[in-house]
Design brief:
Elements lengths: L14 E4 L3 H10 L3 E2 L4 E3 L2 E7 L5 E7 L3
Parallel strand pairs: 1-5
Antiparallel strand pairs: 2-4, 3-4, 4-5
């Protein structure tokens, strides 16, 4: 992560939500004051970003790559 945090044994468990338009969701959530752990990461399977919910849980937003 950009802050230097590394996963410990067992990794980072998280809730995974698929979205249709990641850029729109990120913009909407940032405007609402949501805290993100990183920037959007894009690979062959799609794009993702991690946020922290009000209870401290990690939530991944994922947009699959176009087929």
């Amino acid at each position: 992560m950009p802050d230097g945090e590394r996963p410990s044994p067992g990794g980072w468990n998280r809730i995974h939500l698929v979205v249709d338009d990641l850029a729109v969701e990120v913009e909407r959530l940032r405007a609402a004051g949501v805290r993100f752990r990183n920037d959007v990461v894009t690979g062959p399977g799609g794009s993702q970003i991690l946020l922290i919910d009000p209870s401290g849980n990690i939530v991944e937003l994922f947009q699959p790559a176009a087929r």
